[in-house]
């Protein structure tokens, strides 16, 4: 993108879903990254099919002009000893550092229901106790210190079905953590699905937002999910998420807020769908075209 400090990536979850590997099991790693590049993206996050040895992975990406933007890390700071999360985090961080990534996506999965097929995403959303909030905040700051020592930053991913989903919960986490140690990931789809105001969140925390996910929502599906008490995974299978330009979100004001804030970093298109219903390459091209239209880049 001509906004010289912003780069555009796409997540592999549209090709193969890590939470439901049966979705896209036929799509290979090489097909995925080739189609990303062909659609006009310059970055990727990491999926389960990607080689985890940097020496193996790098040549596959280099030849296609792709860089690693980041990768998801599951923390369990509210339910397990800190040391367990730290050990896994260091391994994850070192891999991303070797791949040249600057941010590490972290989401607390203690009590999360996002991976539970039979639990309603809205009705059974977890709520942290005061002690769990404290454990989460202090643990994230410690992880942030480890990342900072490597010249990296952790970006917290607010997420449906977790203890940090709503505006109030994002506010709480931001209030309890040091901005020098814990930054924020801004995900349009999760905010709109939850019923939050993405522009307000962006403007409130623009100085702490160091990573962005562009995800759209099919309004009718989202309404059905809430009305019929569906789980997060069933919502994904029903098609609640789609790429920018294909759903209910107007990304023009979102882009204007991002541009005017002076944001530097990645914008990653992420829209987990059933690839048998939504061809990943077709939707990647659709997303890139729409983003070009709203950004002139």
TrEMBL record:
Which EC number(s) are documented for this chain?
4.2.1.44
Q: In which pathway does it act?
A: Polyol metabolism; myo-inositol degradation into acetyl-CoA; acetyl-CoA from myo-inositol: step 2/7
- Catalysed reaction per UniProt? scyllo-inosose = 3D-3,5/4-trihydroxycyclohexane-1,2-dione + H2O
* Residue stretches in coiled coil: none
User: SUPFAM superfamilies of this UniProt entry?
Assistant: Xylose isomerase-like
Alphabetical list of InterPro entries matching this protein: IolE, IolE/MocC, IolE/XylAMocC-like, Xyl_isomerase-like_sf, Xyl_isomerase-like_TIM-brl
Q: Which Pfam families match?
A: AP_endonuc_2 (PF01261)
Q: Which family does it belong to?
A: Belongs to the IolE/MocC family.
Q: What is this protein called?
A: Inosose dehydratase
Task: Name the species this protein comes from.
Answer: Enterococcus silesiacus
Organism lineage string: Bacteria, Bacillati, Bacillota, Bacilli, Lactobacillales
Gene of this entry: iolE
């Amino acid at each position: 993108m001509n906004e010289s400090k912003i780069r555009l990536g796409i997540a592999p979850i549209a090709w193969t879903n890590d939470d439901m590997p049966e979705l896209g099991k036929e799509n290979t790693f090489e097909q995925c990254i080739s189609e990303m590049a062909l659609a006009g993206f310059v970055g990727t996050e990491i999926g389960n099919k990607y080689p985890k040895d940097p020496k193996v992975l790098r040549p596959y990406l280099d030849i296609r002009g792709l860089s690693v933007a980041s990768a998801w890390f599951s923390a369990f700071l509210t339910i397990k000893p800190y040391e367990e999360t730290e050990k896994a985090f260091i391994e994850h961080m070192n891999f991303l550092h070797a791949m040249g990534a600057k941010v590490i996506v972290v989401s607390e999965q203690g009590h999360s229901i996002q991976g539970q097929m039979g639990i309603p995403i809205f009705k059974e959303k977890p709520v942290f106790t005061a002690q769990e909030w404290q454990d989460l905040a202090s643990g994230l700051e410690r992880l942030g210190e480890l990342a900072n020592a490597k010249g990296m930053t952790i970006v917290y991913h607010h997420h449906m079905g977790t203890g940090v989903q709503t505006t109030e919960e994002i506010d709480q986490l931001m209030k309890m953590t040091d901005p020098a140690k814990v930054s924020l990931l801004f995900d349009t789809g999760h905010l709109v699905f939850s019923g939050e105001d993405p522009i307000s969140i962006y403007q409130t925390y623009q100085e702490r937002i160091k990573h962005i996910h562009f995800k759209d929502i099919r309004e009718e599906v989202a309404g059905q999910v809430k009305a019929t008490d569906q789980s997060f995974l069933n919502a994904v299978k029903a098609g609640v998420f789609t790429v920018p330009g294909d759903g209910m979100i107007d990304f023009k004001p979102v882009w204007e807020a991002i541009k005017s804030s002076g944001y530097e970093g990645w914008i990653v298109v992420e829209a987990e769908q059933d690839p048998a219903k939504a061809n990943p390459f077709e939707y990647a091209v659709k997303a890139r075209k729409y983003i070009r239209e709203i950004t002139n880049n």
